Amino acid sequence: MEPCIPASWEREDEMSDALIEVGKAPVIAYSEKNWDKARASVTPNYHYDEVATHRAVDGIDKVLDVWKGWAKAFPDSKATFHDAFASGDTVVVELTWKGTHTGPLATPSGEVAPTGKSINLRAVQIQEVKNGKVASTRQYFDMATLMSQLGLKG
CA end-to-end span of the chain, whole Å? Predict the structure, then answer.
């Protein structure tokens, strides 16, 4: 006999799935280098906090400048999703960033010339969703791993 699942649980699962898709949208847009799609997936006053680089910016225009900097350094960079969870208005996404360092990488201590090396970097993003769009993202990744994969000292 199949267990009876309350309809309210099924609605919660559907709502969680929809919220997770909202949370994934900016990552997918970045992976496609589709800046209009990225802009459409977040609120105008979107807050992006890149914990490993100590870079936090407000407003989609400034965030896109940051993302375009990563895309310049790693033009083929793409995310692969591993898992995602939603609770309330919060989405947590586990992913891996992969790409090849073929462009200049801007860092606080100056520009790093292309190394031609590939990265395979695990990350976690915590997204806050408001009115069907991502309002803020905190992204966590290991900077020492990134530098090591590029053959640089961290």
Answer: 57
Distance CA 154, CA 145 (A): 8
In terms of Cα–Cα distance, which of 50, 51, 82 is closest to 69?
A: 50
In a domain, 121, yes or no: yes
The total domain count for the chain is: 1
Token code pair at residue 73:
């350094």
Angstrom distance (rounded) from CA 29 to CA 32: 5
Q: Is residue 1 part of a domain?
A: no
Domain that holds residue 79: 7-149
Q: Assign residue 35 the CATH number of its domain.
A: 3.10.450.50
pLDDT tens-place string over residues 75-110: 999 999 999 999 999 999 999 999 999 999 988 778
Residue 7: phi and psi, rounded to 5, are -60, -30
| Dist CA 84 CA 17 (whole Å) | 9
Name residue 120's beta-bridge partners: 98
- In this prediction the pTM is 0.89
In a domain, 154, yes or no: no
Residue 112 lies in a domain: yes
Question: Do the Cβ atoms of 99 and 74 come closer than 8 Å?
Answer: yes
